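Lecture notes, part 5. Sequence design as translation. It can be helpful to think of inverse folding as translation between two languages: the language of shapes and the language of residues. The source text, in structure tokens, appears below.
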């Protein structure tokens, strides 16, 4: 590592430590009673590069890379069976960026949190401990914790929860907007969209191929859709546009670990800018699902049989 690089890294660490120190003074337990505060100062959000959430569903780990957030999972979580040999390196799947922003907005929102207890006995009684409580950890810089927040169970009415920052004695209560994150499953974080936001009007041609139905083409021309070779047939434009919207807005049911080994169906889409994308879907597996790959994407997807049938229609489906 060069000298300038070392200086830059050390400078960043100093900034992070200074921010945490200042924050600890501002939010000192003796200064918090009756005052509005945020669990995570908004000025520290720029430093956040990791989030760990521990709840009833297990551990969720998020990592920021190139200003985008990803879910991190071990390959063992995605082994098809115990005899499949995968290494244990981390996989990264895209997550819904707005969901991460919603989490940070909740943590950085200034609120008046009533104090409910401030003793070790109270901590044990309300079970706001590392052993019993859910937990949200936000990390920044060299893995330093910017926030380590413990969230107790909802009250009898399910409205409020008890909150305690690790290292604080004070236990606060707040409206339970936290369980939405701590009780979520990994899939609720995944961004499983096959395509970015694409308007149906940009699609010029689609080729559909299926091992049982054969192949045909839908082509836009003269303000309507045609199927080459069957120009005299009347194609229902509304039905085509609705089907296209289904394809372009589709989401997988889960991420897969590998591409389909065989291809049973293919949908190739050409856009007005000359680019194209292709969906390739494999045969049904023992779990009644299908695996798919998308050209231009390094991710693989799992589809239900219902989605598969919605994708692959015979040409007669589009006739008036």
């Amino acid at each position: 590592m060069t000298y300038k690089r070392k200086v830059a890294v050390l400078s960043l660490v100093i900034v992070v430590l200074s921010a945490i120190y200042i924050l600890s003074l501002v939010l000192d337990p003796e200064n918090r009673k009756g005052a509005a505060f945020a669990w995570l100062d908004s000025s520290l959000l720029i430093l956040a590069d990791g989030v760990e959430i521990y709840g009833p569903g297990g551990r969720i780990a998020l990592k920021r890379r190139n200003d985008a957030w990803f879910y991190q999972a071990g390959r063992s979580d995605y082994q098809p069976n115990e005899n499949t040999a995968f290494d244990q390196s981390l996989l990264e799947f895209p997550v819904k960026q707005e969901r991460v922003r919603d989490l940070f907005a909740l943590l950085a929102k200034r609120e008046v949190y009533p104090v409910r207890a401030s003793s070790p006995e109270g901590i044990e009684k309300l079970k706001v401990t590392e052993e019993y409580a859910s937990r949200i950890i936000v990390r920044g810089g060299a893995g330093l914790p910017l926030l380590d927040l413990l969230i107790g169970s909802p009250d009898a009415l399910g409205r409020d929860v008890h909150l305690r920052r690790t290292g604080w004695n004070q236990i606060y209560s707040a409206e339970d907007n936290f369980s939405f994150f701590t009780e979520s499953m990994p899939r609720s974080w995944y961004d499983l969209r096959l395509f970015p936001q694409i308007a149906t009007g940009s699609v010029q041609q689609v080729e559909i191929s299926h091992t049982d139905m054969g192949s045909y083409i839908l082509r836009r021309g003269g303000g309507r859709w045609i199927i080459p070779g069957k120009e005299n047939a009347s194609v229902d434009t509304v039905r085509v546009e609705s089907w296209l919207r289904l394809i372009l807005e589709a989401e997988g049911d889960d991420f897969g670990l590998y591409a389909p080994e065989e291809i049973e169906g293919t949908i190739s889409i050409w856009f007005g800018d000359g680019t194209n994308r292709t969906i390739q879907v494999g045969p049904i597996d023992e779990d009644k699902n299908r695996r798919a790959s998308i050209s231009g994407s390094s991710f693989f997807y799992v589809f239900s049989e219902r989605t598969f049938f919605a994708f692959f229609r015979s040409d007669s489906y589009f006739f008036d």
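The translated text above is only one of many valid answers, since several sequences can fold into similar shapes. The radius of gyration is 26 Å.
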